Q: What sequence folds into this?
């Protein structure tokens, strides 16, 4: 049974088509990153999963339960960190957690939860005085209440400094090791790259790619960037490299020392071999995979590089 099964989900807000026949699965036990630019439909999708928003068309199941008719069962088994959190100024962290326990009908230990998110010092402090990062940590602790089967985190690193973001990633890993499925939306490539088994990229309400980070990287045309430092580059050499079958682009990056930057689809040895055949001495070379940022840009900008 998939943890999340979305089939033909469409959502219109009046004239605005927020989700357009969206289908995807999140398998049990995986960490799934849900990426997309502003307005792509990430929050709308999450709101449908939790039955805060009703679909115009389509089927949605979460943990095997229909999202519309069995939302109570879903919510009691799911930990949610919503976008645009709101803490209650007059309640302490402990009271927030007690409230979360009560509404889910589960028992948990507020102190242990706050230790996990590094907020135990604020146990009995009112949330009115919290920084943004503290409030976000508290919301995360609330999502963790009762060891949920599924965690849905909407932009979880909002308001967190780099340390907080790292700790958040660590918590995602721990929760996943304990057996939870994690579904989180983000604009932040690093977050997704570091913890996700698979990534789905949403654009204008449609899923334009779903794959592992590695698979997505391989799918964009600039698969690997090869940077070669040589003793000389002339036009003839450059043209010869450009006309190799696996090369999509080649350019002179630097004159001193002469450096070629080559986008290769397949093996880099053909490039190095061609240079050698032409009597060009290779001093040094390095390869870099397309970053997830490149992948994201290639799938979500108007003129797709594919
Ligand atoms: N309640 C609403 N009423 C009208 N239009 C809405 C409503 N909620 C969302 N939309 C529209 O639906 C589209 C998708 O919005 P959504 O908030 O789901 O995107 P998102 O990917 O979560 O964006 P962001 O990254 O900015 O949070 C947008 O065009 C948005 O303007």
A:
């Amino acid at each position: 049974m998939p943890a999340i099964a979305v089939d033909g989900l469409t959502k219109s807000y009046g004239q605005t088509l927020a989700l357009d026949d969206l289908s995807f699965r999140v398998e049990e036990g995986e960490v799934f990153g849900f990426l997309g630019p502003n307005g792509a439909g990430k929050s709308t999708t999450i709101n449908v999963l939790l039955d805060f928003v009703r679909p115009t068309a389509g089927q949605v199941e979460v943990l095997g339960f229909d999202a519309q008719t069995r939302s109570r069962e879903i919510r009691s088994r799911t930990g949610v960190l919503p976008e645009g959190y709101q803490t209650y100024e007059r309640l302490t962290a402990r009271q927030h957690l007690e409230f979360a326990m009560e509404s889910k009908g589960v028992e948990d230990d507020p102190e242990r939860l706050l230790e996990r998110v590094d907020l135990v010092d604020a146990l009995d402090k009112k949330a009115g005085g919290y920084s943004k990062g503290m409030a976000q940590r508290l919301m995360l602790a609330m999502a963790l209440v009762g060891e949920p089967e599924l965690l849905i985190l909407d932009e979880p690193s909002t308001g967190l400094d780099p340390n907080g973001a790292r700790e958040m990633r660590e918590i995602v890993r721990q929760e996943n090791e304990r057996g939870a499925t994690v579904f989180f939306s983000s604009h932040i490539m690093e977050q997704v790259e570091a913890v996700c088994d698979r990534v789905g990229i949403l654009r204008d309400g449609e899923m334009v790619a779903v794959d592992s980070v590695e698979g997505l990287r391989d799918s964009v045309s600039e698969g690997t960037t090869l940077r070669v430092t040589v003793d000389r580059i002339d036009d003839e050499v450059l043209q010869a490299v450009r006309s190799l079958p696996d090369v999509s682009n080649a350019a002179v990056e630097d004159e001193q020392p002469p450096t070629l930057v080559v986008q290769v689809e397949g093996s880099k040895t053909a490039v190095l071999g061609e240079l050698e055949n032409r009597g060009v001495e290779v001093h040094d070379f390095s390869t870099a995979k397309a970053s997830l940022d490149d992948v994201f840009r290639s799938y979500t900008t108007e003129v797709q590089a594919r």
In short: Residues 13, 16, 18, 36, 38-44 surround adenosine-5'-triphosphate (CB under 6 Å).
